[in-house]
Amino acid sequence: MDAIVFGVCEEDVNAETSAIESEALRAFDARSGGAVSEMMAEGEFKGKAGSSAFSRARGGNAKHVGVVGLGKREERGVSVMMALGSTAAAHAQKSKCATLGIAGAAGFENAVAAGAYLGATDDQRFKSKPQAKTLKTVSLLDVTADVSAGKARAVGVQLTKELVAAPPNVVTPTALAETAKAIAAKHSDCMTVKILEKADCEKLGMGSYLGVSEASDEPPKFIHLTYKGAGSDLKKVAVVGKGLTFDSGGYNLKAGAGSMIEMMKFDMGGSGATLGAAKIIAQTKPAGVEAHFIIAACENMIGSRGLRPGDILTASNGKTIEVNNTDAEGRLTLADALVYADKTCGATAIVDCATLTGAIIVALGDEMAGLFSPKDDAAKRVEAAAKAAGEDLWRMPMPDSMWAIMKSEIADMKNTGTRGGGSITAALFLKQFVDESVEWSHVDLAGPVWNDKKGGATGYGAATFAEWVASHGK
């Protein structure tokens, strides 16, 4: 091995001196010629989650050695173990290693494998002179478990990252549709795809969605991927993702400092997570479930045909919407997508995901998504899926009393309310387009979909929604 990295718990290290207190770690140190203990002492490494130390070895077969903190042994979770894999692989790649061995993955093999795959993958699609990749092989030492599920997860998350990171002149509604087609073609044994064009959407009365797309020269694409697992009497579920490939704000233009208009390529983060989840499901093939992955893809632009503040739109369920803010467009596209998932697909459980509001970032920060659901069982299922995926979210309230804010004098509702509680009123708006019998949840992932400290697009959501789909077949 060119590099060996050891996952270290706090119990393996003396909290005062950083001295090694684990037999396995002592043996690792001995093979490195004492390099491990020296770098731990110099860096005051204590095994805390998120910490790491690396050095060149002075002995043994490995040229480079490293340790990654896992925190307390009993508190290890999926996200910490994925970080072991990603941190080790990223350092090995940076050090131009061809082979890497990771120790300490037992019990979390798939998480470490997924992390290693993602850590070794550097998005250089738009570089004129991309750097050559050197890391060819990653081995989990002393582990024989099947890690195919971890690789499947990593492939789906990487797809999400690449879609969200790409510029809006590359990832257009048409490009999202082509990605869905590629998934269906690659996994034709279990996946089919249907792309509804503008005329098809007009026939279905999708006035809310089409109203948003009117000013763009890019044609809208309504994407419907279907997965059918093995078994009979399959439970029908749907993942609905917001697919605004660029959001100018429309006539309520995003302007001035803090508008983030230059970052509105990530306003399709929900659709990226939806396609990433579809890719994971296509590879892992859970039985007992029929899953629909739905995206109403379009751009929100400015032009003579564009949506105006004050316009009234009619959604496909017949409800009318007074548009008092063209920059609250995502919910307008989701409205028709939710009706389609409910009425056309017959889904009895639906989760929608969207970079919907800045208000959720104010409430929860940029590392945690907000979960909204009127049903406790539905919320618990999403929470369990997020925990299994190692992704953070927090359930938020959605009291019906706040719906009064959204009332319109001339239509059934407005598309925005007052400034306070913006993420709550957005969730209450979406609730109007799903039958009460449906197990529905909404995830506002505006915060964690992007993190500059972690290199930009995070791939958030793909693993959680794949876990959610699979849970319905169990």
Automatic annotation (TrEMBL):
GO molecular function list: manganese ion binding; metalloaminopeptidase activity
InterPro entries in UniProt: Leucine_aapep/pepB, Macro_dom-like, Peptidase_M17_C, Peptidase_M17_leu_NH2_pept, Peptidase_M17_N
Gene Ontology biological-process entries: proteolysis
Signal peptide region: none
Alphabetical UniProt keywords: Aminopeptidase, Hydrolase, Protease
Transmembrane segments: none
Gene3D superfamilies xrefs: Leucine Aminopeptidase, subunit E, domain 1 (3.40.220.10), Zn peptidases (3.40.630.10)
Domain of life, per lineage: Eukaryota
Cross-referenced Pfam families: Peptidase_M17 (PF00883), Peptidase_M17_N (PF02789)
A single Gene Ontology CC term: cytoplasm
Keyword Hydrolase: yes
Entry-linked SUPFAM superfamilies: Macro domain-like, Zn-dependent exopeptidases
Record-annotated Cytosol aminopeptidase domain positions: 325-332
Catalyzed reactions per annotation: Release of N-terminal proline from a peptide; Release of an N-terminal amino acid, Xaa-|-Yaa-, in which Xaa is preferably Leu, but may be other amino acids including Pro although not Arg or Lys, and Yaa may be Pro. Amino acid amides and methyl esters are also readily hydrolyzed, but rates on arylamides are exceedingly low
CDD domains associated with the record: Peptidase_M17 (cd00433)
Family: Belongs to the peptidase M17 family.
Subunit note: Homohexamer (dimer of homotrimers).
HAMAP family: Cytosol_peptidase_M17
Protein name: Cytosol aminopeptidase family, catalytic domain-domain-containing protein
Native source species: Ostreococcus tauri
